[in-house]
Amino acid sequence: MFRRKRKANDFTAEIEAHLQQESERLREQGLTEEDARAAARRSFGNIMQAQERFYESGRWLWSDRLGRDVRFGARMLARNPGFTVTVILTLALSIGANTAIFSIVNALLLKDLPYARPERMGAIYARTTGPDSYDMRRNIDGEQWELLRDNVPSLISAVSHGRTSGMNLQAGSQVQYLQAGRVSAHYFDVLALHPVLGRNFSGDEDRAHGPKTAILSYSLWRTVFGASPNALGQAMLLKGEPYTIVGVLPESATTPLNADLYIALQPSREGEGVGTNFQAITRLRDGASWQEADAEMNRAWFRSLRVQHFVESNPGANITYYSVPLQKGETDTLQPQVLALMLAAGFILLIACANLAGLTLVRMLRRTAEIATRVALGASGWQIQRQLWIENLLLAFLGATAALGLGFLALRSLLLLLPEHFLPVANVPLDGRVLAFTLFLSLLTSIFFGMLPALTTRRVDLRSSFASRAVIGGGKVRLRQGLIAGEVALTVVLLAASGLLIRTLVHLETMPPGFNPNGVMAAKTSLDDVHYYESATFRKLLDASLAAMRKIPGVRNAAVGLSLPYERALLSGVILSDGQEAGQEVTTNEVYVTPGYFDTLQIPVLAGRAFADSDTPDAQPVVIINQAFAHKFFYRTNPVGRSLLLPFLNQANKNKLIVGVVADTVLSSASKLNAGSAPLTREEAIYLPAAQITDGKSLSVVHAWFQPSWIVRTAGPMAGLTAQMQSALASADPTLPFSGFYDMKDLMAATLATQRIEVALLAAMASLALLLSAVGIFALVANMVAQRTREIGIRIALGATLQKVMIHVGRSGVGAAALGLIVGLLLSAVALRAMRSVLFGVEVYDLPTILVVVLTLSLVAFLATTVPALRIARIDPAKTLREE
Q1: pLDDT tens digit sequence for 729-770
Q2: Contact by Cβ (8 Å): 136, 380
Q3: pLDDT tens digits, residue range 639-660?
Q4: Which residues have a Cβ under 8 Å from the Cβ of 539 and sit 6 or more positions away?
Q5: Half-sphere exposure of 230 toward its Cβ, with a 13 Å CA cutoff?
Q6: What predicted TM-score, i.e. pTM, was given to this entire model?
Q7: CA 803 to CA 780: how far, in whole Å?
Q8: For the residues of 413-432, what is the DSSP string, one character each?
Q9: Helix (H) or strand (E) holding 791
Q10: How far apart are CA 729 and CA 103, in angstroms?
């Protein structure tokens, strides 16, 4: 391998020594020197054959041949830089897109969760049978949690709040806003996480009214407590009351919540435990099976009031609970979007393969004379095929290298664009699985786009190849047309899908908001604080802070609301007290607000009045409903003067008088009030005066889930407004910080951030597919012009007009595009049905979208055909005839 020249020189010297010795012997017998030399060579035999035998005996022939083919292939690619760059760029774009999307698929669906034995961890799903069958991850209530904890021995079970809650931590004189996770005992046992300092929560700490304890994340322990071991056992003020630090998690620890600290959930059947507000995770004990655990869980929960009520209220229906891997439970809401993007990326790859197959086919036809020469000189069919496949593999390797770089950049850009905590995984790396996927995709692509061209070289007619220059035959043209038609068909599907999503996004973004967002600034703070569990201190905070904010120069009005338009609202039960629906309990969105809320947001009052300062705790309990609630539950009658009963946020349990009807505002449908609703809807909502909420216990539950917003309307842009709002709040409570400030327009835009990114990604892929299709059509027509230059010149010389010749040549590209367009529309009629659940304000078969797709593709096909066909005008018929 490394001393070839020395060995070859030694062998040549040895042959020369043999010849010299034999020559000397023959000279001694009387021959002349020249005759002795010739006789010695005849006696020795064919020196070249001896050298070849020596060469073959001391080398790996396959490696030499491979190296020779690789060097020849590299030279051929270097001699055709246009073709090489086009192929590498096409591979980089198509495989890079697949690499970036697959990295997310890998992190979400394939890569194991960062816990010990993740296959034994599960989430709980519910399957209903009956008229409305569905499978979904199921939250549980306090009763079901107790039954799960005490009656399912096959599982180590725990529950959490399901998402982090904003809380205020007071360390010394500093107040810090942070994200806290509320979890039950054994939560970290399920995750197989053990504190590096201290311990996990105990069962006593997880009971109602148990000790207040907390476990810190490593980063919080290091930044706030200086990584001091003495922090263990210390008390800190959290939510206005002392919590004892009992543990510190490892630096590398990750949880589904990713919180700054964790406190004991203390779940019960009261308060938030009345509803399905707990999210369960489980770990299978050693020696147990999931089938046993599911059977135990269903036997236990069959006794729960919620299951019995479901069965009684849905005759013929049943509900069954079962376990699924925790990874599925954490990622199931993202799976449809991610897999749809992966499918779109796969379409891009197929389009690229068809495009490259056509380009490579033309290149092979141009190399017909070269291949025929090699065959005439003795090259076998296998040697020709091997050389061509090696060139394809070289292109695949270069394309894969470029694709990894492009995929890495695309993935980093995508992760920067995604909203915070959008992905329920810590990181999305380009690990070994992604690298293997990229390599496999490159090899598969090289095989796919190299298969058809390589097959065309299996039979070479030496006479016709040497007799004239290669011309693309009709069969080859039809093959290329078929490939381009396939490209265009897939492009139609992607364009139609992206067009429908764009139309949906436009519909959502242009929905009349129902209020005036201009000049409105909002600020949030956590009132999950012991000081505000009493309604009197809560009202005092609102009155004092709003009075201070209204004094800020330039502020026209100020108010507080539990939630704002475009946000998720509190879901609660309401009982209709009179009318045709009297006694019926319905679920609706509830928002407590202060007087001036409707004026600050400029929400029109359609009937009755808005809230006033006179709506005090001692006054008549009142409520305002929106127009959607009025239309749904009061039909055409005037709801003003009617009554509602609110079991929640109503300690006195009195009927509330409807005193007004306001216009509908856009709300986030994250509350799932109406299943299958759009991300933004105009759902039913009721508004309560914050001053009349006298149930402090209900307030504490609500503020564990929601952060109320202070909103101000200004006369125009104001410098330093956020600092003045913080000062106004500090005048009422110096220990209460705002967690964030939001321009109302930014808050509105943030609600559709996910949809906007999905649309942008799919639109980018559709644009790439359109570009590849245009390149395919352009290449088809351009190569036909180049290959048929003599024929075209003769046609023009014999009287054919330029227009007729251009139409004759260009119809191949137009015909391929037209066929692809027809096939693509047929495919879209089937494929787009799967998008029905994500389309809002637009039908699946939307005529304007289809027309835009048809016109866009027709225009691109026309330009891609016309531009290369214009080269015909530069053909000189006289020169062509002279050449003939």
Answers
A1: 999 998 888 988 999 999 998 888 888 888 888 898 899 889
A2: no
A3: 998 888 887 776 556 788 999 9
A4: 617, 690, 691
A5: 2
A6: 0.79
A7: 19
A8: HHHHHSPTT-SSSS-----H
A9: helix 789-797
A10: 45
